[in-house]
Structures are given as structure tokens and as C-alpha cells.
Amino acid sequence: MINDLDRSSVITDRLRRRARAWTAMIRAGRRAVLIYRGDLIWAMAGLMVQLALTVTVWQVVYDGRGEVAGIPLRLQLCYAALATAVQAMILPWQFSSLPIRIRRGQVATDLTRPLGLLGQVLGHNLGTLQGRVPVGLAGIAFAIVIGAATPPASAPAVIGWVLALLLGLVIAQQLYLLVSLAAFWTLEIGGPMMLYRFGSAFAAGSLIPLWFMPGWLAAGLQWLPFQAQVFVPMAIYVGQIGGIGIVTAIGGQLIWVVLLAGLLQLVWSRARHRVVVQGG
Amino acid sequence: VADLRRLPRPVRQYLILYRAAARAALQYRFDFLSSLIGGIAFQGVQLLFLGVLLAKFELIAGWSFDEVGLLFAIRLAAHVVYIVPFHAVFYIDQVVNDGEYDRYLLRPVNPFVQLITRRFPAMAMGDVVLGVVALVVFASRAPIDWTPASVGFLVVAVIGGGLVEGGIQIALSGLTFVATTSMSARNFADTMITTFGGYPLIMFGRLPFSLLTFVFPMAFIAYLPSAVLLGRTGETGLPVLLGWLSPIIGGLIFLGGYLIHRRLSRHYASPGG
After folding, report:
1. How far is B35 from chain A (nearest CA, A)?
2. What's CA B22's distance to the chain center, in Å?
3. Across chain B, where does the E strand assignment appear?
4. Is B97 on the interface with A (CB under 8 A)?
5. B38 vs chain A: nearest CA distance in angstroms?
6. pLDDT 10s per residue in chain B (273 long)?
7. Subunit contact A186:B31, Cβ cutoff 8 A
8. Does the N-terminal or the C-terminal CB of chain B have fewer CB atoms within 10 Å?
9. Counting beta carbons within 10 angstroms of the beta carbon of residue B256, is it exposed (0 to 12), middle (13 to 18) or buried (19 or more)?
10. For B48, which residue in chain A has the nearest alpha carbon?
């Protein structure tokens, strides 16, 4: 009886410590963003300018036509503005602290911490994401003010959008971690990171929605996880994915989350054997 | 090395340090190659975007694909002129906050020269490949009867455009000395130029266009020079001469940017205390 109590208190104690470690990592990540107030203000102002200009680009190319390829201008403006805001939130310039930890050899200490390395990095990234939320929200608010963002297509679209957006964020984090882990093999990952950053922005449909892409390209991108980050939630919001399509799209996202989690575990189990401490 | 002796001191120092950085970068073959691909991806995505957009919409503010292509190619080539020699300005935050700048001040070489030779921009090699190819392809496709004079103008315009981008980035990098970071400011400039530098800027409206000409002078990078070459200066509402002078204006912007950077660097406080 006493033994059982002891055991359960040990477990709760462990869980509590774990939770504390997580909160600490998230807080560290968030603070690392929020401490540079000036930087944050620049990011917000920059996003607003970018939004205003992006909206103008679409207005100009529509050139007075009410709709192109079945897509009304209003819908396209809403998509473009919100996708830009979401993209700015999920993919800030400097996201993961992993590559720099590996290069400096700090990763050796990190590996000995009670919270696993992946957990530390993920916690830190989640904190960074939290820190970037004000930027994304400012962008969305601005999109509403300039009249680009319109209300969601329907009530189910709101629920679908929120769910798809959250899953999109999970997928973005998983992909980001995967690319970061490449640093265990190559030390420098500036190149793959750039490829990921810009390739994924395009493939996610943040720059141009899949419905304006040539058929072969859109069909190809459907098979990649990137479109699940931005295109799926935004297409649900504006009603281009509706009804049963919402369920299928979210199901597709869930499959990607599971697949990427498996891949992440596999790569990580190999990466940890590759730790070479620089200068040691 | 003997022939380097006749060059001005900072230029000689620059070349020696740059060569050393290049040799260091080439030691890491895989990284060099992957950076090259990363560089192509960065700018290539913009080209891909414009291609897809124009395939669907045909015209942007009355400009055809070939015309926008020339504008885009000039911007890209100008970016190469900036990024190959000055890319390492990117590391200013790290250099200042980690105290690396202390060492620069102790050495008998201009600190700015040491900053920009800190690392060789392997990623920029991707830009070089894409920039040269784009310029050759789109210059030949553009509806222009090329004469020696117009080719000459194209070359100096590309150099001037690079100096504009360099001047902006170098001026902004000086903010790190007073505000510990200038990352977002530099990212903002980079995003603006990368994302919107390839459009006929007048399409954003008269006021934004004026701001992009006289406040954040990215119009001089590619739009005004290509308007001159394509005979479209009329739409800008600005004197034709301003377009022709854009390479010289680029030089002035660069000089101004460097002077701002140097002035702000006096505020450097060592992080070591």
C-alpha cells in the first residue's frame, strides 16, 4: 500500500518535473523572441507593408476582372493576405537553435539534460512560435483593416480552419526539425535550410494558391506535406475546400503528422549516434 | 600577391582576406554544394512564382512576361553584385554580440573589411549561376534592339543596382551597434527587394512608388533602369534623366550607406563589459 503510494508519487513527481522542463524550454524560446522588442516591431511593420503590396499585386493582375479561373478577386485577396500572415508566423527567419548548438558543441551538454534533445528543441521552437504569434495576429488584424480579409465561408469552415491550422503548425514543426537534424551529418545546414524555407513557402501555397498553378504542378504538390501547412487551412477558410472535403483534408493532414513523426524518430535514432563534439 | 601591392590598402586587404575565406569555404565540399542549391532556391522560387503567375494572367500592369523577365533578371544580377562581395554583413549581429568585433578593432585592418570577409558566401554562388543565366536569357528575349550603348547601360545599371542594395543593407547593419540587433530591419529590406523588386513598381500607386524611389530607394535597383531600356519611363512620371542616372545614384547610395555604418559603429560597446 505504502509502496504503491510511493511509486505513484514518484511518477507524479517525475511528470511534474517534466512539465516544468517543458514550460521552461517554451519560455526560453518565447523570451528569445520577445526580448528584442525593436525587432518584433520591425517584423510587424514589415509584414503589414508586405501584405499591402501583395494585395495590390493580385488586384493588378486581376486587372478589373471579377473572377479568374472561377476564383473571385475577393476570395483570392483574402487567401493571399491570410496566407502571408500565417507564413510569417510559422516560418520566421531564425527558428531552430539546434544547428548552432551542434556547431558549438553545446549539444553534448544538451544530450545529458533530463528532457530529451528533441523535446528541448521542440519546446524552444514552440516558444519561438508563441513569440511570433503577435506578429501573425498583427498581420491578420491589418488584413481585416485594409478589407482584404473577409469572414470565413461558413461555420464548419471556422472549425475546419482552426483544426487544419493547428495541424499545419505541427507539420511545419516536424519538417523543420527534420531539416535541422541534417546538421548532425553536415554541421552546416544553411543551404538545406534555405531550400526548405523558400521551397516550402512555394510548395505550401503561401505565394500562389495551388488552384492557379498548372495542373501537373498542383497535382505533384498534392502528394507533398507542404500544402498541408498553409494551403489546406486557407482553402478551407475561403470555402474552396468545403463539406466532406474538409474532413478528407484534415484526415490527410493527420496521416502526414503520423508519417513525419515516424520519420523523425527514425532519423533521430540515427542522428544521436553521430554526435562528434567539436574541439573535444 | 606581388601585383596586389599597387592596389589601395583596403582593397588589397579585402582581396587577401576574401581569398582566405573562399579557401576555407571550399574545404567543406558538401556544404558548398548544398549552399549553392539553397541560393538557387531562394531566388529561383521568385522566378517560379512570376512564371506561374504570368502563365495564368499574361500581363502585370501592362508588362509582358519578357519585359517582367528583364526587370527580374536585372534585379537578380544586381543582387549578385551586392551579395558576392558583401554577403557577410549578414553576420553583423553575431559579430557584435559575441564580441568578435573586439578582435576587429585590435587588428590593423579596417573593421568593415574584416566583417565582410568573415565568411565566403557559398550560397551566393547559386545566385551567380541563376543571375547570369537569367540576364542572358531575358535580355535576349526582351523587345529591345540591343546596341553597344544599351548593352553598356545594362552593365552599369546592374552594378549600380547592386550598389543600391548594398548601400541599404550596410546602412541598416549599422543599427546593430546601437540596438544589439538589426536582423529584422535587414530581413525587411531583403524581403522587400526579393519579393517586390521584380515588379513594375509604379503599379503599387503613386505614393508607394515615390516612397520606393526616394525613401527606400529600391526603384533604382531594377525598375527605373529597365524602364529606360524598354522605353517605359513615361509611366513613371519621373524625368527620363533620373532613369539614366540610376547607376550613379547607386554609387551615391552605397557611399551613404557605408558612411552611416561607420558613424554608427562608433557606438559599439564591447559585450565583455
Report:
1. 4
2. 20
3. none
4. no
5. 4
6. 557 778 888 888 888 888 888 888 788 777 778 778 888 887 888 888 888 988 888 888 899 999 999 999 999 999 999 999 999 999 999 999 988 999 999 998 899 999 999 888 877 888 898 999 999 999 999 999 999 999 999 999 999 999 999 999 999 999 999 988 888 889 889 989 988 999 999 999 999 999 999 999 999 999 999 999 999 999 999 999 999 999 999 999 999 999 999 999 999 988 875
7. yes
8. C
9. middle
10. A202
Grid coordinates given for A34: 520577445
E runs forming strands in chain A: 67-68, 71-72
Q: Which of residues 154-193 of B touch A (CB under 8 A)?
A: 179-181, 183-185, 187-188, 191-192
| B240, B228 contact by CB (below 8 A) | yes
Of residues A62, A69, A199, nearest to B45 (C-beta): A199
Predicted complex ipTM: 0.85
- Which of A45, A194, A208 lies closest to B38 in CB terms? A194
- Give the helix, strand, coil percentages of chain B, each rounded to 5: 80, 0, 20
Cβ–Cβ under 8 Å, residues B138 and B70: yes
- Model pTM? 0.84
Q: How far apart (Å, rounded) are the C-alpha atoms in residues B154 and B148? A: 10
Of A15, A259, A18, the C-alpha closest to A116 is A18
C-alpha cell at B263: 558613424
In the block, cell 546592374 appears at B158
